[in-house]
From TrEMBL:
InterPro entries: DUF2914. It comes from Polaribacter haliotis. This is DUF2914 domain-containing protein. Residues 288-355 form the DUF2914 domain. Pfam families: DUF2914 (PF11141). The chain crosses the membrane at residues 23-43, 49-69, 85-104, 110-127, 139-161, 167-189, 201-220. The keyword Flavoprotein does not apply. Keywords: Membrane, Transmembrane, Transmembrane helix.
Length: 371
């Protein structure tokens, strides 16, 4: 075993880690994030479920054993000899689990609705660098663990139960609190250093604070209703359905506007309806009613006015999302948006556009696509 350890330290990888040990935890965090970005696809796929469950399990074990390394019973044991590499494992699994949330919701048309999570993720990255002990800081360890545990269960529980609503979200939160507190108590009882370094009421208070913060984000619709995601949303001139295919005719923008499909400035004739096409991703067999809420911005009152709310049921399982559309006649000039929401009024995404009635000056570039 000693010879193997010596060979490892003299290897290129071992030398690299020793030389750059100051930045190794961050590199492993980024590595986990990048690896999942390349391999994960959809939350209800067996491969994704196995990977995420494995990451969650290994992260739990890594944190548990890392906090027990100083225990005398591990002297001359495998865990004691390789314990110094456990922080790298913790960083890798934290990166992998954190990236899952970003990957699944980066599909959403409304990136702004997921901005709250990105801010939390950035905070984790910055906090990881600012803490003097970095991941060895037990408060940071357990708070980061609780956050990724909560987000993981927010995906996993609806997939297993094939149901998604506020009650399911609350159940996911309760399970994450219970499992995190169980791990903390287990480590606290088994590790003398943990009993010295953390104050129980402070640790539990931080966990409760994160729990309330995530629920506040959910209540104020700052994060999408997991695990649904708006895959596509565009404004169209005409939509027809033929042989389970949607034929959509719409305006496209200049070639350099690559971040959206449709042109925001929508030109139409006064006697023609305006269509909004969406596709919503949902896990297999999950059924949910969603709504297209048509809103027009009133320049006089400086407020959004709801003019229509059209609902239909979606069924999960299709990789590109469940397709559907709504349309509206007798629209007027101005700024419009169609919010795609659930029965609980949680926003999946927003399709923004400006309507110009009888605009004869511009020459729209119109295309027809099959979805």
């Amino acid at each position: 075993m000693k010879n193997n350890l010596l060979k490892y330290r003299e290897s290129k990888f071992g030398v690299f880690l020793i030389k750059h040990k100051k930045y190794a935890p961050l590199l492993f965090f980024v590595a986990g994030f990048t690896w999942d970005s390349l391999t994960l696809g959809r939350i209800d796929r067996l491969y994704d479920i196995v990977i995420l469950c494995t990451y969650m399990t290994l992260l739990t074990l890594s944190i548990y054993f890392y906090n027990l390394v100083d225990n005398e019973k591990w002297k001359n044991k495998f865990i004691k000899r390789y314990g110094k590499y456990l922080p790298l494992a913790i960083q890798f699994f934290l990166g992998g689990l954190s990236s899952a949330y970003v990957i699944y919701f980066s599909r959403s048309v409304s990136i702004s609705k997921t901005a709250s999570f990105f801010l939390i993720l950035i905070f984790l990255l910055i906090a990881n660098e600012l803490f003097k002990k970095r991941i060895s800081n037990k408060y940071l360890q357990f708070c980061a663990y609780f956050f990724v545990n909560f987000t993981f269960l927010s995906f996993f529980v609806p997939v297993i139960l094939k149901e998604m609503n506020t009650t399911i979200f609350m159940i996911s939160g309760a399970l994450s609190v219970a499992s995190t507190l169980f791990l903390i108590v287990l480590v606290y009882r088994s590790s003398a250093s943990t009993r010295t370094e953390i104050v129980k009421w402070k640790m539990f208070g931080m966990i409760l604070g994160i729990y309330l913060l995530i629920n506040a984000f959910y209540y104020f619709r700052l994060i999408p209703p997991v695990p649904l995601a708006l895959d596509k949303g565009l404004i169209a001139h005409n939509i027809t359905k033929k042989n389970d295919k949607y034929i959509v005719t719409y305006e496209v923008d200049d070639w350099y506007v690559f971040w959206r499909d449709h042109k925001i400035d929508f030109n139409r004739k006064s006697n023609k309806p305006v269509y909004v096409f969406t596709s919503v991703f949902a896990p297999t067999d999950l059924k949910k009613k969603i709504y297209h809420v048509w809103k027009w911005y009133n320049l006089e009152t400086k407020e959004w006015k709801t003019l229509d709310k059209i609902g239909f049921e979606i069924v999960g399982g299709r990789d590109s999302g469940y397709r559907g559309y709504s349309y509206k006649n007798n629209v007027i000039d101005g700024e419009w948006k169609v919010e795609v929401v659930t029965e609980e009024n949680l926003v999946l995404g927003v399709v923004d556009f400006n309507i110009n009635v009888n605009d004869t000056k511009s020459k729209p570039h119109i295309v027809t696509r099959i979805f």
